[in-house]
Amino acid sequence: MNSDAPNMTNPQRIRRAMGFLSGQGNLPTLADFAQAAHLFGQAHSVPFAKAKLAVLTALGCGVKQDFENATALFIDAVMGGFPPLMTDMAVILEAYGGHEGLVSTLLRQAARRGDVTARYLIVRAGMRGEAFVSEQDWAVIKDSLPSNMPLISGSYINGTPIEPVPIERAAMERAVSVIWSPAAPTAKPLSQNHDIRTVSNVLTPQQCDYLIALSAPLMQPSKVVAESGSFHAGFRTSDGAVILPAVMDMPLLQILFSLSAAAGVAPHQGEFLSLLRYYPGQEYRPHHDYLSKDEADYSQVDRTGQRSLTMLTYLNEDFSGGATDFPDLEIRFKGNRGDSIVFANTDVEGTPLPSSRHAGLSVETGEKWLATLWLREKTFWPWVIEAN
Fold first, then answer.
1. Are 358 and 368 in contact (CB under 8 A)?
2. Percent of the chain scoring above 70 in pLDDT
3. What total number of domains does the chain contain?
4. Quick one: DSSP state of residue 236?
5. What is the residue-wise DSSP string for 275-326?
6. Strands of the 307-314 sheet, one edge to the other
7. Which residues are registered as beta bridge partners of 188?
8. Does residue 28 sit within a domain?
9. Are residues 319 and 210 part of one domain?
């Protein structure tokens, strides 16, 4: 399909590019990514298109990988004043640290211009004592949120006011440039006989809230993977959402690069990030994450290898029950917000480990939100071609 149709408007280019990123109902091909990158480049005067091109450029997805150019493209897009991109930059800056005033400026401006995610982040921050706005303004913003937004039943906690400051491009450049080479945090082993470890504070509270806000409208009843495909099962009663390429944005890349560094693997070995929500009484009974291979190889074990590691990251902590249990290892873990547990599903030769059996125990009160990243032995991202 030719993406150079004459007389196409920028909105038409963007819609067509998003269609290519969605794979037209299937997993996007390398040609789809290249077409999307070309169309976003043609529509680069639109901040949304420029930001999408920045993501593809950072990933080397349909266009040559170039972190420096990706950084410049994204900051130019943010400077265009599109509210969701201002929110994206606020999330990135908050994780970078030391720029609370600029985070306040971006969130307040984005919220004032109608961005629901910015409003959600301000409300959640106010419940932690982070005063991006006054208590009165916080209450107004909270009332403006859709009634089905999760985890907003708490109250405002008075904290030190965070005063907004003028937008500074240099600070944004420094924060974005750190995305591509995050520091690997220290892990704590939990067993001498199995590769299972915890890592504290992998994600910041605002990153956790961002993932919740992003995934909440995408939630569907969770499925399990089997030889013939995926299906609903009574032993898995959560809701889930998978962040596919069309949804990728710069805060998600920051999160994926940070998670991968904490797990000790390359980002391209990760499957697409899965988000889970458990209500009271919901659970995931004991199961293994390693995969079976059928004739069609639905699970792509031939191409990408086994799920050698699983990484679970807790996105909130205001619930009871819901620990991750390893019955054969006699280990039970419940992380604080932003904490991860990483465990091996196979040995170094790729042989499945039955002792990796684990369960998400039933939630008693509140909602449990979790990010799951399954990590393959080889490259999983479909736009990365490994050298032979």
1. no
2. 93
3. 3
4. B
5. EEEE-TT--EEEE--S----TT-TT-HHHH--EEEEEEEE-----EE--EEE
6. 187-189, 196-199, 340-344, 307-314, 368-376, 274-278, 239-242, 220-221
7. 198
8. yes
9. yes
Residue where one domain finishes, among candidates 156, 178, 200: 178
Backbone dihedral angles phi then psi of residue 59, each to the nearest 5 degrees: -85, -10
Instruction: Say yes or no: 278 and 362 in one domain.
Output: yes
Q: What is the DSSP string of 36-57?
A: HHHHHHHTTTSHHHHHHHHHHH
How far is it, in rounded angstroms, from Cα 162 to Cα 167?
15
Does 316 lie in the same domain as 195? yes
Res. 229: pLDDT tops 70: no
DSSP 5-36: -TT--HHHHHHHHHHHHHGGGSPPPHHHHHHH
pTM as predicted: 0.93
Tell whether the model's pLDDT for residue 227 goes beyond 60.
no
Mark whether 55 and 108 lie in a shared domain.
Answer: no
Average pLDDT of the residues in 53-69: 96
| Predicted local distance difference test score (pLDDT) of residue 294 | 72
Domain boundary among 109, 144, 178: 178
88 alpha-carbon distance from chain centroid: 12
Q: Which residues of 285-297 are buried (b: 16+ CB within 10 A; e: fewer)?
A: eeebbbbeeeeee
Domain containing residue 171: 83-178
Q: Assess contact for 198 and 341: CB atoms under 8 A.
A: yes
